[in-house]
């Protein structure tokens, strides 16, 4: 849960174009502490979460939405947050949103083909002597 909450903070911060240093200054902590929060290495206290939400111009519940849904399956949401932490994921999504539908379809097909080609293959069984 700490990782998912940290990922939500990172996504919101990067969406707004705020650096870790700027967020840290607004919250009265070091940028290393923000890194630890975003990576899930350190747990975010509720009072600190309120500060972070204010600095990110959102509500606490907006950051906790993926965690605060006992009536729905959250595995997909957590998986999405984990994937969004991949370097370049937000930039790729932003560029993708600007493409026309036919270009999106072509790009998805291209990326699937690249991923398939890059996937590890089981090695052929060695001949028995």
What does this structure look like?
The protein has 129 residues and is mainly alpha-helical. It is 65% helix and 0% strand. The chain contains eight helices and no strands. The protein has helices spanning 2-16, 20-27, 31-39, 46-55, 60-64, 75-84, 89-97, 101-118. The longest helix is centred in the C-terminal third of the chain and has 18 residues, at 101-118. The chain is elongated, with a radius of gyration of 19 Å.
Topology:
Layout: H1 2-16, H2 20-27, H3 31-39, H4 46-55, H5 60-64, H6 75-84, H7 89-97, H8 101-118
Helix pairs in contact: 1-3, 1-6, 2-3
Quick tags:
129 residues, mainly alpha, 65% helix, 0% strand, elongated
Helix content: 55-70%
Order of helices and strands: HHHHHHHH
What is the overall silhouette?
A: elongated
End-to-end C-alpha gap: 52 Å
> What portion of the residues fall into strands of 2 or more residues?
under 5%
Q: Specify the structural class.
A: mainly alpha
Total strand segments = 0
The major beta sheet can be summarized as: none
Mean pLDDT: 83
Poorly predicted sequence stretches spanning 5 or more consecutive residues: none
Task: From the alpha carbons, calculate the radius of gyration and give it in angstroms.
Answer: 19 Å
Annotation field: number of helices: 8
């Amino acid at each position: 849960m700490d990782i998912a909450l940290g990922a939500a903070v990172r996504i919101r911060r990067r969406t707004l174009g705020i650096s870790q240093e700027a967020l840290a200054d607004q919250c009265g902590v070091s940028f290393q502490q923000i890194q630890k929060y975003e990576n899930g290495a350190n747990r975010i206290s509720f009072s600190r979460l309120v500060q972070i939400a204010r600095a990110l111009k959102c509500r606490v519940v907006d950051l906790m939405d993926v965690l605060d849904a006992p009536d729905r399956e959250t595995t997909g949401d957590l998986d999405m947050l984990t994937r969004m932490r991949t370097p370049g994921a937000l930039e790729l999504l932003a560029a993708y949103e600007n493409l026309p539908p036919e270009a999106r379809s072509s790009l998805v097909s291209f990326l699937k083909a690249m991923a398939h080609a890059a996937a590890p293959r089981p090695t052929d069984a060695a001949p028995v002597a």
